[in-house]
Each structure stands twice: as structure tokens, then as C-alpha cells.
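pipeline: protein-struct stage 2 | run 1193 | Small-subunit processome Utp12 domain-containing protein
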Amino acid sequence: MIGACLVCPATLNWLTRRNRTCSPGSETPLDDGPGRDRHAGICALNPKELQEKFPAVDKKSAGRRRRPIKGCAATPTMVRSYRRYEAGPTFGTVCSATSNAVWVSDATSSRTSTGAGRAYVGANEDVLAWDIKKGELLSRWNDKENKSEVTALTQCAAQPDLFAAGYNDGSIRVWDALSGQIVVSFNGHRSAITHLQFDREGARLASGSRDTDIILWNLLSETAEFRLRGHKDQITGLSFIRTPIIRHQSPHTDEAVDLGAQSESEIEWEEKYLLSTSKDSLIKLWDLSSPHCVETHVAQTNGECWALGISPDGEGCITAGNDGELKVWRLDLNIMSELSQSVAEGTKKSDALTGQGILHRQGKDRTIGIVFHPKQDYIAIHGSEKAVELWRIRGGDEVHRHMQRKKRRRREKAAAAGETLPSEASDAIGTPEMTDVFVPYVIVRTGGKVRSCAWIVQKGSKSLQLMASTTNNQLEMYTATTYKALQQKAGGSKEAPDYSRHLAVDIPGHRSDVRTLALSSDDRMLASASSGQLKIWNLKTQSCLRTLECGQALCSAFLPGDRIVLLGTKTGDLEVWDIGTSTLIESIPAHEGQAIWTLAVHPDGKSVVTGSADKSAKFWRFDVVEEDIPGTRRTTQRLKLTQTRQLKLSDDILSLCFSPDERLLAVATLDNTVKIFFVDSLKLFLTLYGHKLPVLNLSISSDSKLIATCSADKNVRIWGLDFGDCHKAFFAHNDSVMSVSFIPHPVERDEAHILFSASKDGVLKSWDGEKFEQIQRLEGHKGEVWAMIVGRTGETVITASHDKSLRTWQVGDDLIFLEEERERELEEQYESTMAANLDRDYVDETGQQAGTDEVATAGGKQTITTLTHGEKIIEALELSLPDLELMSTYSHQKAENPNLAYPQRHPQFLALGNIAAEDYVLSVLRKIPSPALNDALLVLPFSQLPAMFTFLALFLQRRTFPELAWRVTYFLLQAHMNQIVSSTALRPLLEDVLRGYEEWQEAQRKLVGFNLAGLEVWGRDVREAEKGGEGGGFVGETGVEEEEEEERRTEKGRKKRAFASVA
């Protein structure tokens, strides 16, 4: 029976279907009538028509409330939706302490030169390019899919616009500096990248990681060549070693032909060796042609090796460890040139890597960086302290003179002691020690602990220039006098070298962690304060407007008018700053040397209350007083804070908050409780008990009905302000919750009880204070979140963290539904668990790495992405092979019967425009990124190989992307060789594949031969034209000579980097 007021959705559906059917005894549907919507059918009937159309059995039953039908809601319920917050601009970070810095000359960029070059640094998950002279941010490279921080950076020497960035999750991205786009991404390591190194030609990239592995990446084919295992701890240094080529393979035989004596200009170089150091105190020399370790030495005597520095000529290196110990090594390039053959023949007589001696620098901390000057004989060495030590390498003549002086002093000392001296001619000078060759030059004191340093090489500069990135979020550029200039200036007298801080990039960030944030009333300006600095930011442009030197700030607030910022410091002073004139108006000793932990401005804007560790809360009134201007008769107005009242408590006050209705004042104390007082009388109204550790922050909702508290016990509690009852206590974070806040002035009434919480676990969360459910979890910070501020209407939330970044979280276009959000979080948790289990065979039962012998293995890594790509390949093969057979049968039958009907294909092919089966498989393969193709093919079971080889044979025979087809074939043969050899069913398919490959290879050989012959003819014509003095043709009379001169100027052996995918 249908009532006249409410109809459940199931009944409405039934009514709609009934309305669209014919009435009894009629052949046409019911006509549209008055009050009836044509598209909605009977759903649009008014109550009177419904009552007439479906009359009740009797009037009594018609007026009675209907019993709800099982499975149908009595009333339609609206699902609550929330606004979704998204990560907005990030600012305040100059450089991170987790990554090194790379200096680049302005000559390598098309940008206007400023004379000081550019610095590329890692800033959490971004890579930033800074103009060192102007202190401006030139570009920001950010991959939205990446959430890991940058841990290593390096530049390609062959193509200076290419940079490789290693991340904390083990991924590597090669960036193009001109476009700011990713060229290629690699994912093979299990943990953070520690070191990256390009070869000189820019065709290969070596990466070292904390997982103790070294992977060699081929940038041309965008694949991992192999993984080198042998070290037992994280990699701390990598370098390609250039060796001269002394043998060439004969074109007629397989034997190597000795090239004999060559001049320096005729020597050809190759990079077939890799030098690596590790925290396990070992230094290893790897042969990359037949990947294996050829030499292993103990680098440091104190147990750990933390740095590796290679000389510019490649004939020496220095390793460093703990306690300031440095070890000098010699690399014999001639022995290395014959090393492969001597090892194979078993005739190796001496090591290519030999230790020369030990040095000790002045600092006794761990040495983490050694950088040779590319042009001069200087070395920059630094540890983790606030200093960079510059060492000088003496030349041969200077070493000889130094040894002569040592000999003379030795003879004078022996003569004074009455010892018998040998003759002057027979007394040898002696072999110089490493301390005679490497001498300390000057110690550069920096403004923070050094993370990395780089030499700055500029044309026309006669001084030493050094760039240092520090862990306190700044870049510094220092200039030091060279030894030669010092000798000329001093005239032979011994004068200490001088250095100075020339430039710095420090304004866009704080030196220490930001402890407090404050927003202006219009949410346009942000005040952030740390220990010693107060910065005012423009939120729209993320630019720093003011930098003021203040005390160790703990709390802050904008005063009404947004021209004055009030700071509470750890020394108990209240600092009043005028941001318009950048002056300190007044510093008030408010709490007698005890820290001011909190302050809150009264809702009427006429007073402020401060809470301190002296167990008191003081009330201050804002007064405007007239002050005389010294030397004149004029006066000026000045803000003055006058204490009016004081509230004494029994414990330290940690947080204060006024209720928006101006009735109550909530005070959090060190005894884990929250006390609520009446503002007018300061009488106690409520005491909130429940937290097990001190309450760190609190907030009252805009309607003054709820109060939220957060504590060091990791909990957030919501209380009612009417009776002080705890509505809900939930475990909010995995660490102390530092801040909690409701939206101060929500636009919509249903957002009045939405609150935010920030914690030391680096996560920001939003909560529904009525349903007591988590709305959204926002991750992005790489350290503890110390401060949080919510915008006036909740459109923006700003957080400050230990990672030195200020992050904005802004309302996006999407909405959040709690059930969908929980499902998404469960999916992410499931994917992370699956990703952790994909490589479980990498770690054996004892927790050690599997295969720790010195071996070369595959460099791939299974991820969720590669697993998804592999499943798509399997799905495409299962779908396409039957269709291929169907269409092949149809083609044969069509030749005999032209009127044969077209077969019924799978809807997937019809949806793609009646695509052929082989084209569909090819499109699936082409959509897989080249670096992930091998790992995706590993997902294929052996049972799918016949189908795959069937399509690969078609690709090769039809010459459709034969490079991709042969790459897939070659990898599958490598991965499944044992099973393929023992299978007879695959033989015909492999023969088809081989036949197609040979035909394609022969065609390519003919094409290349034709082109080479054409180039020879062209070159011969050009040479003849030049000899005859003719200036016509493609090249002018001096064109070839100019090109040859240009080639001689270019470093031999370097090729222009060109990325090309095999696919």
C-alpha cells in the first residue's frame, strides 16, 4: 500500500517501471498528464494523484503510518561529505641536510649570467636551483608521484643540462635542467641512494645505496646492466676510472693487436673500471667489461670509510674515515690497462691500487667529503662540523726544496749533538712522505655544520672559491687567497691565508626549527619564528618580506591591524615588533626569566594573556600612548602593554585559549589537566581530567560548545564546555601531538566542529568532532611538525617542521566521503604490504642480504607498478591469442567463401576500433616504461611464453618495432633459458623468431652499408674540392679545418649525450 507523503526508493523504482508499461486493456503506454514529469514518469506525481492512482484499502489504513519495508530506508539519508585538502606550495627550505649540493657555471645555461653560477640542491622531495648571487630561486623540480626526499645529486659532464637525483626510497630520476622534466626514472635499490656518478660520455650511471649494492644503469637503453654485490655496508663513494687503450681487436681475427707507442694526443681512453668505497672500510676495484671485483683493499684502519676523492688526472685518490684519518692511494693506469688480460692469464704481478701513506686533518670528527680542485692543486676536506679544511698539494720542485731544507735541518741538529755526519754527497735527501706532499693550507669556518662542498671555477678568477651547503638550511660561498698570490703579496714572508664569506643564500629559510606560526586576519601574511629569527612571508608568492633578529621565540600572534607581531620568548620577554618599519617597539620582561610558553589575544582585540613556566597567567591591555620625538616638539603614537590582572596556578602553564563568546579561558598546565576559568571573575568553572601526560595545546570551537585538547600521550580528546564531560578520546598519532585547532570562523555551520591535529610523527590529520572519526591524513613532512596554524575560514592550513619547510595545505575541488577514504587508505596499506613482500627473497632468514659474494646479478626490482604491467601483458596475451587464431581461420575461409560472415570478436577489440590482436599486444608492450619492461616480463609464467613468442615472430617478420620485439625476446631467453632448452614445443616458434630477426638484421646491415658508402663518396668529393681550391659544395674552403680544430679543442673521447629508447 502506497502512502501519500513518503515513498521508499525501491517502491519508486517499481512505480517507474509500472508507469512505463501499458495500462490494462490498452496497447499504448499511459499518457503524460498534469503534474507528471515526462522523464521521471510516475515519480513526479503529486500526493493527490498518487492517492487517486493507488487508493488505500480503507481510510483508516490510508492515514496510518506505514511500516518500513525491509531493505528500504524510511527516509532518504544524505551521506556527509567533507572538503578535501591537498598539498599546496612549500617554502622556507634552502637545502636539506640529507643531500649534497652541485655547483654549475652560468655558461652551461641559456639563462642570463650573474657571475656566481647556480647551485642545485635537494630540498626534501624537490630539487631546487638557486642563483647564488641574487639569492633567487630559478627552478623547482618536483615529481608529484614521489614522496621521498632527495639524498644524492650529480651532474652529467658530457651534457651539463642533465642531472641525476637519488631518493630515499631507492629510486633515481634523471632531470633535464632546461625543461625541468624527467628524462628517465630507474628503480632498483631497496633503500636510500648514497652516491651517484656519470661516466664521461654520459652513457652510463653508477649508483650506490645503503642496501650495499652498486647498480650500473645504461642511459641509452634505459635499463640496468647489472648489480654489483660485495660490500657489507652502505656505499660511500663511487668513481669511474679512465684507462688508456693499448690493444685493439683485429678486424680479421679474434686476437688483440698491440697498438705500440702512442703520442699523448693519439691515446684513446675508456672507462671499464669502477672504484667504490663502503662503510665496511673496504675499497674495491671492479672490472665492468666482465663484471667482477679484481682488487679489494682495507681503506681505513679505524673500521669505517666515509668518503672517496679522485684526483682530476685519475692517477690518485684519497679515502677518509673516523678520527680525521686520511689515506692516500696511487692508481697505476698502465697496470689497469692490462689487468683484464693478466688476470685471465694468471700473470698478475702487482696491484693497480697501492697505498701511499696516511694523513691526519685537524678535525677529529668523521670525514664525509673530499673534493679535488679541477684546475689547481688544492683539496677541500670536511667533516660534520662547522669547518672546511683546504689542503695544498706541493709541486715537484717545491717538494725537492722542502726535502733539501729537511736534510739541512737534520744535519744541523746532528752536528749540534756531536754526532758523526756522512759527507754531503753521500747523504741522500730521502723519500718524501705524504705529509711532505699534502700540507694544510687554511681552515674555512662556516655558519653551520657542513653537509657538502664544491669548488667554484670561474674564468678570470685568481682566488679560490668554495661553495658549502650546511645542515642549518643555507648555502655559503667563500673566497680564499691562493698560495701563489700570497707569496707575491708577502714577498717571501710567512703570512696566514685569508678567506671571507662572499655570498650566501640564507634569507628564504630559518637557521633552526620554526616553533611558532601566526597568520594575519586576512590570511595574506604569515609570521614564523625560530630561535633568533622572525620572518614575515607573503603567502601568495611564498616570498620572505622581512627577516628580524629576535630572541628564542616560543609563541606569537598578530595584533589587530596586522602591523604588529607579538612574540613570547624562552627568556620570559614579550617582544613587540613593528613589521612595517622592521623595528622592535618594546621588549617587556613579563615573566622574570621564565619561558613564555603560550599567549592568546582576547576576541575583542583589546588585550592579550600570556602563560609562562612561572606558574602564572598575566593579562595585558593594549594602550596607545603619546611619546615625544627627541629634538622636536612633535609627538608620535606608540603601542604599550599594560598589565591588568594576574592568575596564579600551581603548575607551569603550557597553553591558553579564549572561547569565541568571550566567557571562558581554558588553561593547560603541567599536571596533565585543563582548567577552565570565567574571564570576568577568573573563578574556576571546570577541571578536565583524563590525559596521562601534559596537555601541549588546546582549541575551542567557534560556537563555544566543544574544546579539543592534545597531549604528549599521543591522544586527542574532545570535551563539552557545558559540563566538562569527555565526548571522545582517540589515539590520534604515533608520537606527541603538538598542536590542535578548530576552524576559527567557518563559512558553513557544519564545519564548526572540524578540527586539525599535527604531531611529531610528521603527519597532519583532520577530524570530525561530532562523529569522532578521522577525515583525512596528510603526509609530506620529513620530520617532526612543531607548529600549525589554521586559516580564518579553514581554506588554508600551514605547518612547520624539523625539515625546515613550511607547507601549505589548501582546499581542493574534490570532496571526501568517509567510507571511500577508509577504502583508499586500506588499499594503500595493502599495496605497501605487497611491495614489501615482493622482494622478500632479497633478505634471507638471518636478515643478511642474499648472495653477499662478489658477484654481478640483475639490477631489477619488483614493484606494484611492474607487477601491474606484467598482469596487463598476461591479460593481453590471453585475450589476443584466441582472437589471432580466429581471425587467421577467418582469413583462410574468406579466400574460399567471399560471402562468409565476419566473426564475433571480443568487445575489447571492437571498443578499440576493431584493432588487430597483434597490434593490441604491441600497444600494451609499448605503454610500459623502458626501465620497467624487464621486471614486468618477469611476471610472465612459462606457460605464456608460446603466446608471447608467437606475437614476437609476427613483429619481427612485419618489421613493426623490431627493436622492442628483439629486446623482449632476448630477455625472455635469458630468464627462461633452462626451461626453453628442455622444451621441444617452443622450437618451431623460436625458429620463426630467429628467421624474422635475421631478415631484419640483414636489411639493417644493407642500409647501414649503403649509408657508409654514400658518406665515403661525399667525403671524397669534399676533399677533392678543397684540394682544387674550389669553395663550392656543402663545406667551405676552411670548413673542415675549422671543424678539426674544434674537435681538437674538445676533450677527446667525449660524446654528446643522446637518449634513445631501444623500444
